[in-house]
Design a protein that fits this description.
- By secondary structure, the protein is mostly helical.
- The chain has one domain.
- The protein has five helices and no strands.
- α1 packs antiparallel against α2, α1 packs parallel to α5 and α2 runs antiparallel to α5.
């Protein structure tokens, strides 16, 4: 394989790997933000008057927050259908020696080294192996970012519901002429 072709393949693989990491970081950040606002909600929960409006807003908040949590957790472990991947030809029955699942299928380091040597010696096998890996990572990224997008929308919706409730509480207590103490 020409070194230029090889560098292009490795660059694409590196970009897909970075996208995986970014999706996980976004999900963890959104979960943290949602958790902080949930703490605020729990602290002020006893100050929420029970009426139809607050019950509806609190129900909407909890539903959006639960769906957001579920979607953000699915970013970390997305469900991806195995689509259109052919079995590795040069890698044999063990699997792809550059992907962690394939590496773990070898009984020992020597068997892994022999398989890796046989693939690296053949440029087309190496290209095919990395192409399958890039395709797999791209499919995982597609699923992760679908869940990230849903999670962002749900987190924004949950925070909006919480802010509506806070604004309602502020207006109702201000209308009564007093503000309750928290502590």
């Amino acid at each position: 394989m020409t070194s230029n072709r090889f560098l292009v393949v490795l660059r694409i693989l590196d970009n897909e790997t970075r996208l995986l990491e970014r999706a996980d970081q976004k999900a963890i950040s959104l979960l943290s933000i949602l958790g902080v606002f949930m703490v605020f909600f729990i602290v002020y929960y006893r100050l929420v008057p029970v009426n139809v409006f607050t019950i509806v807003v609190v129900t909407v908040y909890f539903c959006l927050a639960l769906f957001a949590i579920w979607n953000l957790i699915m970013v970390v472990r997305p469900r991806v259908e195995g689509g259109g991947q052919s079995p590795p030809s040069a890698a044999g029955a063990r699997g792809d020696p550059t992907f962690f699942q394939g590496i773990c299928r070898y009984p020992d380091a020597q068997a892994y080294k022999e398989s890796l040597d046989s693939i690296v010696d053949d440029d087309e096998s190496t290209l095919e192996m990395y192409t399958r890996q890039i395709y797999s990572l791209a499919r995982i990224n597609e699923a992760k970012y679908r869940y990230v997008q849903r999670g962002v929308i749900l987190v924004i919706g949950a925070l909006a519901a919480e802010l509506v409730l806070i604004a309602y509480l502020f207006a109702s207590y201000l209308g009564l002429g007093w503000m309750p103490s928290v502590g």
